[in-house]
Task: inverse folding
Protein backbone atom coordinates (compact mmCIF):
# COMPACT_ATOMS: atom_id res chain seq x y z
CA UNK A 1 0.00 0.00 0.00
CA UNK A 2 1.51 3.35 -1.05
CA UNK A 3 1.50 6.46 1.14
CA UNK A 4 -1.10 7.94 -1.18
CA UNK A 5 -3.31 4.88 -0.80
CA UNK A 6 -2.97 5.04 2.97
CA UNK A 7 -3.95 8.72 2.91
CA UNK A 8 -6.95 8.04 0.69
CA UNK A 9 -8.11 5.20 2.94
CA UNK A 10 -7.77 7.42 6.01
CA UNK A 11 -9.80 10.14 4.29
CA UNK A 12 -12.53 7.63 3.46
CA UNK A 13 -12.84 6.06 6.89
CA UNK A 14 -12.58 9.27 8.92
CA UNK A 15 -15.13 10.98 6.68
CA UNK A 16 -17.47 8.06 7.22
CA UNK A 17 -16.89 7.67 10.96
CA UNK A 18 -16.95 11.34 11.91
CA UNK A 19 -19.32 12.58 9.19
CA UNK A 20 -16.73 14.98 7.77
CA UNK A 21 -16.42 16.43 4.28
CA UNK A 22 -13.60 14.65 2.50
CA UNK A 23 -12.30 18.00 1.22
CA UNK A 24 -11.59 19.04 4.81
CA UNK A 25 -9.30 16.09 5.42
CA UNK A 26 -5.98 17.35 4.07
CA UNK A 27 -2.48 16.30 5.12
CA UNK A 28 -2.10 19.60 7.02
CA UNK A 29 -5.46 19.39 8.78
CA UNK A 30 -5.24 19.21 12.56
CA UNK A 31 -7.35 16.39 14.00
CA UNK A 32 -8.52 18.45 16.92
CA UNK A 33 -8.54 22.10 15.84
CA UNK A 34 -9.45 21.82 12.16
CA UNK A 35 -11.50 18.64 12.13
CA UNK A 36 -13.02 19.16 15.57
CA UNK A 37 -12.31 15.73 17.02
CA UNK A 38 -11.97 15.29 20.78
CA UNK A 39 -10.75 12.70 23.29
CA UNK A 40 -13.71 10.35 22.73
CA UNK A 41 -13.28 10.60 18.97
CA UNK A 42 -9.58 9.76 19.36
CA UNK A 43 -10.55 6.47 20.99
CA UNK A 44 -12.96 5.67 18.16
CA UNK A 45 -10.42 6.75 15.53
CA UNK A 46 -7.98 4.15 16.79
CA UNK A 47 -10.68 1.46 16.59
CA UNK A 48 -11.52 2.43 13.02
CA UNK A 49 -7.86 2.53 11.99
CA UNK A 50 -7.16 -0.86 13.59
CA UNK A 51 -10.04 -2.37 11.67
CA UNK A 52 -9.12 -0.66 8.40
CA UNK A 53 -5.41 -1.45 8.38
CA UNK A 54 -5.52 -4.65 10.42
CA UNK A 55 -3.20 -3.24 13.07
CA UNK A 56 -3.12 -3.19 16.88
CA UNK A 57 -2.71 0.43 17.91
CA UNK A 58 -4.64 0.95 21.11
CA UNK A 59 -1.67 0.88 23.46
CA UNK A 60 0.83 2.64 21.18
CA UNK A 61 2.50 5.58 22.91
CA UNK A 62 3.36 7.20 19.56
CA UNK A 63 -0.29 7.75 18.83
CA UNK A 64 -0.39 10.53 21.44
CA UNK A 65 1.97 12.66 19.37
CA UNK A 66 -0.25 12.65 16.29
CA UNK A 67 -1.74 16.08 15.58
CA UNK A 68 -2.36 16.21 11.85
CA UNK A 69 -3.63 13.89 9.15
CA UNK A 70 -0.08 13.92 7.77
CA UNK A 71 1.23 12.64 11.14
CA UNK A 72 -1.41 9.94 11.02
CA UNK A 73 -0.47 8.82 7.50
CA UNK A 74 3.22 8.61 8.50
CA UNK A 75 2.32 6.66 11.64
CA UNK A 76 0.22 4.10 9.76
CA UNK A 77 2.83 3.72 7.00
CA UNK A 78 5.51 3.12 9.65
CA UNK A 79 3.39 0.57 11.54
CA UNK A 80 2.54 -1.31 8.37
CA UNK A 81 6.22 -1.36 7.39
CA UNK A 82 7.18 -2.74 10.83
CA UNK A 83 4.61 -5.46 10.37
CA UNK A 84 6.05 -6.38 6.96
CA UNK A 85 9.63 -6.60 8.38
CA UNK A 86 8.45 -8.79 11.27
CA UNK B 1 -43.76 32.02 49.57
CA UNK B 2 -45.84 29.06 48.51
CA UNK B 3 -44.89 28.18 44.97
CA UNK B 4 -47.30 26.59 42.52
CA UNK B 5 -46.24 24.40 39.63
CA UNK B 6 -47.77 24.47 36.16
CA UNK B 7 -47.23 22.61 32.92
CA UNK B 8 -46.13 24.93 30.11
CA UNK B 9 -44.60 22.62 27.51
CA UNK B 10 -45.12 19.19 25.97
CA UNK B 11 -42.89 17.03 23.79
CA UNK B 12 -43.34 13.50 22.53
CA UNK B 13 -41.77 10.74 20.53
CA UNK B 14 -44.15 7.82 20.60
CA UNK B 15 -45.08 4.59 18.85
CA UNK B 16 -47.16 6.86 16.60
CA UNK B 17 -44.07 8.80 15.52
CA UNK B 18 -42.41 12.11 16.30
CA UNK B 19 -44.32 14.94 17.90
CA UNK B 20 -47.23 15.57 20.21
CA UNK B 21 -49.62 16.01 17.29
CA UNK B 22 -48.88 12.50 15.91
CA UNK B 23 -49.54 11.03 19.35
CA UNK B 24 -52.80 12.90 19.86
CA UNK B 25 -54.17 12.48 16.34
CA UNK B 26 -53.71 8.72 16.41
CA UNK B 27 -55.20 8.35 19.88
CA UNK B 28 -58.21 10.45 18.90
CA UNK B 29 -58.60 8.30 15.76
CA UNK B 30 -58.64 5.23 18.02
CA UNK B 31 -55.66 3.62 16.25
CA UNK B 32 -53.31 0.97 17.60
CA UNK B 33 -49.52 1.22 17.29
CA UNK B 34 -48.94 -2.39 18.31
CA UNK B 35 -47.12 -4.58 15.79
CA UNK B 36 -46.14 -8.17 15.27
CA UNK B 37 -42.36 -8.59 15.59
CA UNK B 38 -41.40 -11.55 13.34
CA UNK B 39 -37.67 -11.01 13.96
CA UNK B 40 -38.26 -12.02 17.59
CA UNK B 41 -39.31 -15.54 16.55
CA UNK B 42 -35.67 -16.62 16.59
CA UNK B 43 -35.37 -15.98 20.34
CA UNK B 44 -35.85 -19.28 22.09
CA UNK B 45 -38.32 -19.12 24.94
CA UNK B 46 -39.79 -15.73 24.03
CA UNK B 47 -43.53 -16.15 23.48
CA UNK B 48 -44.63 -12.52 23.17
CA UNK B 49 -43.79 -11.32 19.67
CA UNK B 50 -45.52 -7.98 20.01
CA UNK B 51 -44.31 -4.44 20.54
CA UNK B 52 -45.14 -0.80 19.92
CA UNK B 53 -41.82 0.53 18.64
CA UNK B 54 -41.17 4.09 17.54
CA UNK B 55 -41.28 4.15 13.71
CA UNK B 56 -37.80 4.42 12.17
CA UNK B 57 -36.49 7.86 11.25
CA UNK B 58 -33.09 9.31 10.39
CA UNK B 59 -31.21 9.98 13.61
CA UNK B 60 -28.88 12.32 11.73
CA UNK B 61 -31.30 15.13 12.51
CA UNK B 62 -29.11 15.42 15.63
CA UNK B 63 -25.43 16.36 15.24
CA UNK B 64 -22.92 13.51 15.41
CA UNK B 65 -21.20 14.90 18.50
CA UNK B 66 -24.50 14.65 20.40
CA UNK B 67 -25.61 11.39 18.82
CA UNK B 68 -22.40 9.44 19.49
CA UNK B 69 -23.29 8.99 23.17
CA UNK B 70 -27.01 8.40 22.62
CA UNK B 71 -28.89 5.15 22.30
CA UNK B 72 -32.37 5.32 20.84
CA UNK B 73 -33.96 6.28 24.16
CA UNK B 74 -31.69 9.30 24.62
CA UNK B 75 -32.39 10.39 21.04
CA UNK B 76 -36.13 10.16 21.72
CA UNK B 77 -35.70 12.09 25.00
CA UNK B 78 -33.68 14.81 23.29
CA UNK B 79 -36.19 15.28 20.49
CA UNK B 80 -39.09 15.31 22.94
CA UNK B 81 -37.23 17.85 25.09
CA UNK B 82 -36.55 20.08 22.11
CA UNK B 83 -40.24 19.99 21.21
CA UNK B 84 -41.26 20.78 24.80
CA UNK B 85 -38.89 23.75 24.87
CA UNK B 86 -40.27 25.07 21.57
CA UNK B 87 -43.83 24.50 22.77
CA UNK B 88 -43.23 26.36 26.03
CA UNK B 89 -41.50 29.33 24.45
CA UNK B 90 -38.97 29.52 27.29
CA UNK B 91 -35.92 31.56 26.46
CA UNK B 92 -32.44 30.24 25.74
CA UNK B 93 -31.30 32.38 28.67
CA UNK B 94 -33.53 30.47 31.09
CA UNK B 95 -32.53 27.16 29.51
CA UNK B 96 -28.86 27.72 30.32
CA UNK B 97 -29.29 29.85 33.43
CA UNK B 98 -28.96 27.08 35.98
CA UNK B 99 -32.52 27.82 37.11
CA UNK B 100 -33.90 25.13 34.80
CA UNK B 101 -33.10 21.48 35.48
CA UNK B 102 -33.78 18.08 34.03
CA UNK B 103 -35.36 14.93 35.47
CA UNK B 104 -35.77 12.29 32.79
CA UNK B 105 -35.73 8.61 33.66
CA UNK B 106 -35.88 5.21 32.01
CA UNK B 107 -36.04 1.62 33.17
CA UNK B 108 -32.37 1.01 32.37
CA UNK B 109 -29.88 2.53 29.95
CA UNK B 110 -30.20 1.69 26.28
CA UNK B 111 -30.64 -2.10 25.95
CA UNK B 112 -29.20 -1.97 22.41
CA UNK B 113 -26.00 -0.50 23.84
CA UNK B 114 -25.82 -3.27 26.44
CA UNK B 115 -26.28 -5.79 23.63
CA UNK B 116 -23.51 -4.19 21.55
CA UNK B 117 -21.08 -4.23 24.48
CA UNK B 118 -21.76 -7.71 25.77
CA UNK B 119 -21.95 -9.35 22.36
CA UNK B 120 -18.28 -8.35 21.90
CA UNK B 121 -17.17 -8.75 25.53
CA UNK B 122 -18.79 -12.12 26.20
CA UNK B 123 -18.52 -13.73 22.78
CA UNK B 124 -14.83 -12.90 22.31
CA UNK B 125 -13.67 -12.16 25.85
CA UNK B 126 -12.41 -8.92 24.37
CA UNK B 127 -12.87 -5.17 24.53
CA UNK B 128 -11.51 -4.61 21.05
CA UNK B 129 -13.75 -2.58 18.83
CA UNK B 130 -15.94 -1.21 21.64
CA UNK B 131 -16.56 2.45 20.89
CA UNK B 132 -16.14 5.27 23.39
CA UNK B 133 -19.83 6.15 23.39
CA UNK B 134 -21.15 2.78 24.52
CA UNK B 135 -20.97 3.45 28.25
CA UNK B 136 -22.75 6.79 27.87
CA UNK B 137 -25.58 5.07 26.02
CA UNK B 138 -26.03 2.44 28.69
CA UNK B 139 -25.61 4.38 31.93
CA UNK B 140 -28.72 4.77 34.06
CA UNK B 141 -28.97 8.53 33.57
CA UNK B 142 -28.22 8.45 29.84
CA UNK B 143 -31.39 10.37 28.94
CA UNK B 144 -30.99 13.22 31.39
CA UNK B 145 -27.23 13.56 30.78
CA UNK B 146 -27.59 13.65 27.01
CA UNK B 147 -30.55 16.06 27.13
CA UNK B 148 -28.56 18.46 29.34
CA UNK B 149 -25.63 18.30 26.94
CA UNK B 150 -27.70 18.70 23.79
CA UNK B 151 -29.75 21.63 25.12
CA UNK B 152 -27.04 23.35 27.13
CA UNK B 153 -28.85 22.94 30.44
CA UNK B 154 -26.88 23.77 33.58
CA UNK B 155 -29.39 23.28 36.41
CA UNK B 156 -30.05 20.18 38.51
CA UNK B 157 -29.76 16.88 36.66
CA UNK B 158 -31.72 13.87 37.88
CA UNK B 159 -32.41 10.48 36.37
CA UNK B 160 -35.19 8.71 38.26
CA UNK B 161 -34.89 5.03 37.43
CA UNK B 162 -37.92 3.04 38.55
CA UNK B 163 -39.13 1.08 35.53
CA UNK B 164 -42.75 1.94 34.75
CA UNK B 165 -42.89 4.89 37.16
CA UNK B 166 -39.67 6.53 35.93
CA UNK B 167 -41.42 9.42 34.22
CA UNK B 168 -44.17 9.88 36.79
CA UNK B 169 -41.51 10.02 39.51
CA UNK B 170 -39.50 12.43 37.35
CA UNK B 171 -42.54 14.70 37.03
CA UNK B 172 -43.20 14.36 40.76
CA UNK B 173 -39.60 15.20 41.52
CA UNK B 174 -39.68 18.23 39.22
CA UNK B 175 -42.84 19.40 41.00
CA UNK B 176 -41.11 19.04 44.38
CA UNK B 177 -37.97 20.88 43.23
CA UNK B 178 -39.95 23.83 41.85
CA UNK B 179 -42.23 23.97 44.90
CA UNK B 180 -39.14 24.03 47.09
CA UNK B 181 -37.72 26.95 45.13
CA UNK B 182 -34.64 25.05 44.01
CA UNK B 183 -35.48 25.41 40.30
CA UNK B 184 -37.65 27.83 38.36
CA UNK B 185 -38.49 25.28 35.68
CA UNK B 186 -37.79 21.63 34.87
CA UNK B 187 -37.79 19.44 31.81
CA UNK B 188 -39.19 16.17 33.11
CA UNK B 189 -40.43 12.85 31.87
CA UNK B 190 -39.06 9.56 30.66
CA UNK B 191 -37.94 7.47 27.74
CA UNK B 192 -37.77 3.86 26.66
CA UNK B 193 -36.87 1.81 23.60
CA UNK B 194 -38.33 -1.50 22.51
CA UNK B 195 -36.00 -4.47 22.70
CA UNK B 196 -36.68 -8.19 23.08
CA UNK B 197 -34.76 -8.23 26.36
CA UNK B 198 -37.28 -5.75 27.80
CA UNK B 199 -40.30 -7.71 26.60
CA UNK B 200 -38.70 -10.90 27.89
CA UNK B 201 -38.81 -9.55 31.46
CA UNK B 202 -42.61 -9.56 31.33
CA UNK B 203 -42.75 -12.72 29.23
CA UNK B 204 -40.74 -14.62 31.84
CA UNK B 205 -43.17 -13.47 34.53
CA UNK B 206 -46.10 -14.66 32.41
CA UNK B 207 -47.21 -11.04 31.98
CA UNK B 208 -46.46 -10.50 28.28
CA UNK B 209 -49.32 -10.68 25.78
CA UNK B 210 -49.15 -13.68 23.46
CA UNK B 211 -51.94 -12.60 21.11
CA UNK B 212 -49.39 -12.56 18.30
CA UNK B 213 -51.84 -13.25 15.51
CA UNK B 214 -53.85 -10.05 15.95
CA UNK B 215 -51.57 -7.32 17.30
CA UNK B 216 -54.08 -4.49 17.03
CA UNK B 217 -56.25 -6.28 19.61
CA UNK B 218 -53.41 -7.51 21.80
CA UNK B 219 -53.31 -5.08 24.73
CA UNK B 220 -56.72 -5.11 26.44
CA UNK B 221 -56.76 -3.35 29.81
CA UNK B 222 -59.73 -4.31 32.03
CA UNK B 223 -61.04 -6.76 29.39
CA UNK B 224 -61.85 -10.35 30.34
CA UNK B 225 -59.78 -11.55 27.35
CA UNK B 226 -56.64 -9.63 28.21
CA UNK B 227 -53.45 -11.61 28.55
CA UNK B 228 -50.74 -9.15 29.36
CA UNK B 229 -48.48 -6.27 28.51
CA UNK B 230 -47.15 -5.14 25.14
CA UNK B 231 -44.00 -3.05 25.54
CA UNK B 232 -43.55 0.17 23.62
CA UNK B 233 -40.89 2.82 23.09
CA UNK B 234 -40.69 6.59 22.98
CA UNK B 235 -40.31 9.58 25.22
CA UNK B 236 -42.64 12.04 26.85
CA UNK B 237 -41.28 15.28 28.27
CA UNK B 238 -43.09 18.11 30.04
CA UNK B 239 -41.91 21.53 31.07
CA UNK B 240 -42.98 22.27 34.61
CA UNK B 241 -42.61 25.83 35.71
CA UNK B 242 -43.20 28.06 38.67
CA UNK B 243 -46.63 29.68 38.16
CA UNK B 244 -45.33 33.22 38.65
CA UNK B 245 -42.60 32.64 36.08
CA UNK B 246 -45.13 31.29 33.60
CA UNK B 247 -47.50 34.20 34.20
CA UNK B 248 -44.76 36.79 33.85
CA UNK B 249 -43.84 35.61 30.40
CA UNK B 250 -47.45 35.01 29.33
CA UNK B 251 -46.95 31.29 28.80
CA UNK B 252 -49.70 28.93 27.71
CA UNK B 253 -50.58 26.83 30.77
CA UNK B 254 -51.84 23.29 30.16
CA UNK B 255 -52.55 22.46 33.77
CA UNK B 256 -51.32 22.65 37.34
CA UNK B 257 -49.74 19.80 39.27
CA UNK B 258 -51.47 19.98 42.63
CA UNK B 259 -50.51 16.71 44.30
CA UNK B 260 -48.07 13.86 44.07
CA UNK B 261 -48.49 10.55 45.85
CA UNK B 262 -45.43 8.32 45.84
CA UNK B 263 -45.45 5.29 48.14
CA UNK B 264 -43.85 1.89 48.34
CA UNK B 265 -45.44 -1.46 49.07
CA UNK B 266 -42.94 -3.71 50.66
CA UNK B 267 -44.93 -6.90 50.32
CA UNK B 268 -43.71 -8.30 47.01
CA UNK B 269 -41.20 -7.27 44.34
CA UNK B 270 -43.60 -7.93 41.46
CA UNK B 271 -47.20 -8.24 42.65
CA UNK B 272 -49.35 -5.11 42.68
CA UNK B 273 -50.98 -4.16 45.96
CA UNK B 274 -54.35 -2.45 46.16
CA UNK B 275 -53.69 -0.77 49.49
CA UNK B 276 -50.53 0.95 48.26
CA UNK B 277 -52.28 2.14 45.12
CA UNK B 278 -54.98 3.63 47.36
CA UNK B 279 -52.35 5.30 49.53
CA UNK B 280 -50.71 6.88 46.48
CA UNK B 281 -54.00 8.32 45.23
CA UNK B 282 -55.03 9.53 48.68
CA UNK B 283 -51.70 11.25 49.25
CA UNK B 284 -51.98 13.08 45.92
CA UNK B 285 -55.51 14.20 46.82
CA UNK B 286 -54.58 15.24 50.36
CA UNK B 287 -51.67 17.31 49.12
CA UNK B 288 -53.97 18.93 46.56
CA UNK B 289 -56.65 19.54 49.21
CA UNK B 290 -59.29 17.81 47.13
CA UNK B 291 -61.92 15.19 47.86
CA UNK B 292 -63.15 12.20 45.86
CA UNK B 293 -66.03 14.25 44.48
CA UNK B 294 -63.52 16.68 42.93
CA UNK B 295 -61.89 14.03 40.74
CA UNK B 296 -63.45 14.07 37.28
CA UNK B 297 -61.43 11.29 35.67
CA UNK B 298 -58.67 8.78 36.36
CA UNK B 299 -56.16 7.94 33.68
CA UNK B 300 -55.27 4.50 34.90
CA UNK B 301 -51.95 2.71 34.77
CA UNK B 302 -53.82 -0.47 33.70
CA UNK B 303 -51.41 -2.37 31.49
CA UNK B 304 -53.62 -5.32 30.61
CA UNK B 305 -52.44 -7.79 33.25
CA UNK B 306 -54.95 -9.65 35.37
CA UNK B 307 -53.42 -8.81 38.73
CA UNK B 308 -52.63 -5.18 37.92
CA UNK B 309 -55.96 -4.26 36.37
CA UNK B 310 -57.99 -5.79 39.18
CA UNK B 311 -55.83 -4.31 41.95
CA UNK B 312 -56.09 -0.83 40.43
CA UNK B 313 -59.84 -1.08 39.80
CA UNK B 314 -60.47 -2.05 43.40
CA UNK B 315 -58.15 0.72 44.63
CA UNK B 316 -59.98 3.33 42.52
CA UNK B 317 -63.34 2.08 43.79
CA UNK B 318 -62.18 2.27 47.41
CA UNK B 319 -60.81 5.80 47.03
CA UNK B 320 -63.25 7.39 44.58
CA UNK B 321 -66.33 5.19 44.51
CA UNK B 322 -67.87 3.74 41.40
CA UNK B 323 -68.92 6.76 39.35
CA UNK B 324 -65.64 8.48 38.41
CA UNK B 325 -64.80 7.74 34.76
CA UNK B 326 -61.66 5.64 34.26
CA UNK B 327 -59.73 4.63 31.15
CA UNK B 328 -56.29 3.43 30.12
CA UNK B 329 -54.27 4.35 27.02
CA UNK B 330 -52.21 1.14 26.91
CA UNK B 331 -54.57 -0.39 24.33
CA UNK B 332 -53.55 2.35 21.87
CA UNK B 333 -49.77 2.27 22.17
CA UNK B 334 -48.86 -0.43 24.64
CA UNK B 335 -46.85 0.11 27.78
CA UNK B 336 -44.04 2.54 27.12
CA UNK B 337 -42.67 1.79 30.61
CA UNK B 338 -40.39 4.67 31.68
CA UNK B 339 -42.07 6.96 29.15
CA UNK B 340 -45.64 5.94 29.91
CA UNK B 341 -46.47 8.42 32.67
CA UNK B 342 -45.41 11.44 30.64
CA UNK B 343 -46.89 10.32 27.31
CA UNK B 344 -50.19 9.46 28.97
CA UNK B 345 -50.26 12.80 30.82
CA UNK B 346 -49.82 14.60 27.49
CA UNK B 347 -52.86 12.75 26.15
CA UNK B 348 -54.80 13.40 29.37
CA UNK B 349 -54.04 17.13 29.19
CA UNK B 350 -55.56 17.07 25.71
CA UNK B 351 -58.63 15.29 27.08
CA UNK B 352 -58.94 18.16 29.56
CA UNK B 353 -58.51 20.71 26.79
CA UNK B 354 -61.12 18.98 24.61
CA UNK B 355 -63.38 18.09 27.57
CA UNK B 356 -63.60 14.60 26.16
CA UNK B 357 -62.60 11.19 27.55
CA UNK B 358 -60.78 8.72 25.34
CA UNK B 359 -61.98 5.18 26.11
CA UNK B 360 -59.76 2.17 26.74
CA UNK B 361 -59.04 0.70 23.31
CA UNK B 362 -59.87 -3.02 23.01
CA UNK B 363 -62.11 -2.98 26.06
CA UNK B 364 -65.11 -4.81 24.69
CA UNK B 365 -65.99 -7.21 27.46
CA UNK B 366 -65.30 -5.87 30.94
CA UNK B 367 -63.81 -8.31 33.42
CA UNK B 368 -66.43 -8.40 36.17
CA UNK B 369 -63.67 -8.26 38.76
CA UNK B 370 -62.88 -4.75 37.41
CA UNK B 371 -66.52 -3.87 37.02
CA UNK B 372 -67.21 -1.75 40.08
CA UNK B 373 -65.76 1.39 38.54
CA UNK B 374 -67.00 3.52 35.66
CA UNK B 375 -64.84 2.13 32.84
CA UNK B 376 -65.16 4.22 29.70
CA UNK B 377 -65.73 2.22 26.52
CA UNK B 378 -66.85 4.98 24.15
CA UNK B 379 -65.42 8.41 23.51
CA UNK B 380 -67.52 10.72 25.66
CA UNK B 381 -67.77 14.41 26.47
CA UNK B 382 -67.11 15.18 30.10
CA UNK B 383 -66.38 18.01 32.47
CA UNK B 384 -62.70 17.47 33.22
CA UNK B 385 -61.30 19.95 35.67
CA UNK B 386 -59.27 17.76 38.00
CA UNK B 387 -57.84 14.33 37.25
CA UNK B 388 -55.63 11.66 38.75
CA UNK B 389 -52.89 9.98 36.75
CA UNK B 390 -51.77 6.65 38.15
CA UNK B 391 -48.56 4.78 37.44
CA UNK B 392 -47.20 1.73 39.22
CA UNK B 393 -43.96 -0.20 38.81
CA UNK B 394 -42.29 -3.49 39.49
CA UNK B 395 -40.29 -3.05 42.67
CA UNK B 396 -43.27 -1.79 44.64
CA UNK B 397 -43.47 1.83 43.44
CA UNK B 398 -46.93 3.38 43.40
CA UNK B 399 -47.46 6.92 42.11
CA UNK B 400 -50.41 9.18 41.50
CA UNK B 401 -50.34 12.74 40.21
CA UNK B 402 -53.25 15.13 40.71
CA UNK B 403 -53.58 17.65 37.89
CA UNK B 404 -55.99 20.56 37.69
CA UNK B 405 -56.88 22.32 34.48
CA UNK B 406 -58.08 25.68 35.70
CA UNK B 407 -55.51 27.87 37.37
CA UNK B 408 -57.28 29.15 40.45
CA UNK B 409 -56.28 32.52 41.94
Result:
Amino acid sequence: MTDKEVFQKIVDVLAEEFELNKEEITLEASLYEKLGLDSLDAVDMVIVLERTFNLKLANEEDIRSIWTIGDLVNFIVKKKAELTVE
Amino acid sequence: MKRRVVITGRGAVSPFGRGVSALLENIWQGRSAIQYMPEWLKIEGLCSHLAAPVPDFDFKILPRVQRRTMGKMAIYATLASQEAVRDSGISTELLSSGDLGVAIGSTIGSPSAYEAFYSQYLANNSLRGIKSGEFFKSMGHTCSANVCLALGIRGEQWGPVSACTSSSQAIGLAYILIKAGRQQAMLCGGAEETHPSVTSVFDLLGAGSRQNSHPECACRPFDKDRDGIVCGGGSGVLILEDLESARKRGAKIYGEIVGFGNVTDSGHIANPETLSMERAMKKAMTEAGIAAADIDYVNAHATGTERGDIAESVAIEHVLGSTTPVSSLKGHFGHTLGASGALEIIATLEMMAQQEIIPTRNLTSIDSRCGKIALVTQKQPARLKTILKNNFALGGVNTSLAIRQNILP
Q: What stands out?
A: Chain A touches chain B at residues 18-19, 36, 38, 40-41, 43-44, 47, 50-51, 58 (CB under 8 Å). Chain A has one domain: 3-80.
